[in-house]
Amino acid sequence: MTLVPAQIRWPLPDRAAVATIGSVSEGARFSPGQRIALWVVPKMTALLLALVGMTLRFEVIAEEGATPPASPARGIFCFWHRCTLPAGWYFRKFRCSILISQSFDGELIARTLALLGYGSVRGSSSRGGAGGLMAMREVLARGEPVVFTADGPLGPIYETKIGPVKLAAMTGEAIGCFYLLPQRAWTLHSWDRFLVPLPFSRVVVSWARVVTAPGPDADPATLETKRAELNDALERSRLRAEAHLAGRLAK
Question: CB–CB of 111/42 below 8 Å?
Fold first, then answer.
């Protein structure tokens, strides 16, 4: 049976209400083989993620002073690239838009996430990054949240890029920091040790305290200090999740 978006029946938010900024003309950019992949792969990936996602059991924890947001939320959010799959399922109702590269791989991701209810802003830290930040500012101005994979798209692992901090300076929005850790998962041999959660796994959703925005006129040294603060918050969320699953956190 051939799957089309209308045949995917799992609960999804209203995609019409989610901003999608920037489209790609596949005829101009992609080969015939790539166009076939763009038609098939996102549908299959979204379906598989939904089948696994519906079996996952999420447990939310937060460090002292952190308040996990509820849907609908607004603001800037960051997480490490390796937990993209569980994060993609858990946050599908938050009506987020995500900065995604303009590459073929980025187009696959954008189309997959669209089926889960996400918007996409096309750009990256190396190509179209400034335009991507401007487009994300427009999304925030509408009261909708935006999300960064802070160490993506190619690492190094656990080292955040400056983009979220620049967007915070542009908008005055604080940055929420979280990490999702499945108790049972495959770990891929990739730069980020990408996590593929196994069905029926428990997943810890760990929140750190928000990182406040730097001033709109912050100089490079101030932005770098704030980037290091963001990196520390993301690492605290990760280490707290690992400690929780290992039973090292006080009840």
Answer: yes
176 sits in which H/E element = strand 175-182
Residue 173: both structure tokens together: 């929005």
Which parts of the chain register pLDDT below 70? 1-28, 124-129, 249-251
Residue 24 forms part of a structural domain? no
Residue with tokens 């280490």: 239
**What are the b/e assignments for 90-110, b being 16+ CB within 10 Å?**
bbbbbbbbbbbbbebebbbbb
Alpha helices in the chain (DSSP H): 26-29, 32-53, 84-90, 104-115, 129-141, 163-171, 220-245
Is residue 208 situated within a structural domain?
yes
Q: Dump pLDDT digits (tens) for 56-65.
A: 999 999 999 9
φ and ψ of 141, to 5 deg: -65, -25
Spatial CB neighbours of 100, under 8 Å, sequence gap ≥ 6: 106, 109, 110, 113, 120, 121, 122, 123, 124
> In which domain, by residue range, is 221 found?
29-244
Asked if 99 and 164 count as a contact pair (C-beta separation under 8 A), the reply is no
Q: Is 23 inside any structural domain?
A: no
At which residue do the structure tokens 């039973």 appear? 247
What is the pTM assigned to this prediction?
A: 0.84
User: How many domains does the chain divide into?
Assistant: 1
Task: Give residue-wise pLDDT tens across range 172-230.
Answer: 999 999 999 999 999 999 999 999 999 999 999 999 999 999 999 999 999 999 999 99
